[in-house]
């Protein structure tokens, strides 16, 4: 039972840590590992067991979901949104967005503002 509680606590704590640092372009794996008190390999293995993906993939997924939300709910330019969710390079953000959602940011905005 302690393992289940500690896994739930790990999941809650790590997701909160990522969400709190979405804007931080310098937030990286080393920061996550250092705060956990685990070795790098133990942290990555635990993270993958709990979330089913790497820390990098989770950070990107949460950033892209937040960006998608902002694309639909604001009229911010894509460059501003990409910066607000932690991407220093707008072009890299757009490539990641297209790979994740299967459409460009412009297509996503047009399709989802009609709803």
Describe what this molecule looks like in 3D.
- This protein is mainly α and 115 residues long.
- The protein is 75% helix and 0% strand.
- It is built from seven helices and no strands.
- The longest helix has 19 residues.
- It is elongated, with a radius of gyration of 16 Å.
- The N and C termini lie far apart (44 Å).
Write the layout of secondary structure elements.
Elements: H1 2-20, H2 29-36, H3 40-51, H4 55-73, H5 78-84, H6 90-101, H7 105-113
Q: What descriptive keywords fit this protein?
A:
115 residues, elongated
Helix-strand makeup class: mainly alpha
What is the percent of helical residues? over 70%
Number of strands: 0
Low-confidence runs (pLDDT<50, min 5 residues)? none
Shape designation = elongated
**What's the pLDDT, averaged over the residues?**
91
Strand content: under 5%
Radius of gyration: 16 Å
Number of helices, where a helix is a run of at least 4 consecutive DSSP H or I residues:
7
Q: How widely separated are the two ends?
A: 44 Å
What is the chain-wise order of helices and strands? HHHHHHH
Main pleated-sheet profile: none
Q: What can be said about this structure in brief?
A:
The protein has about 120 residues and is mostly helical.
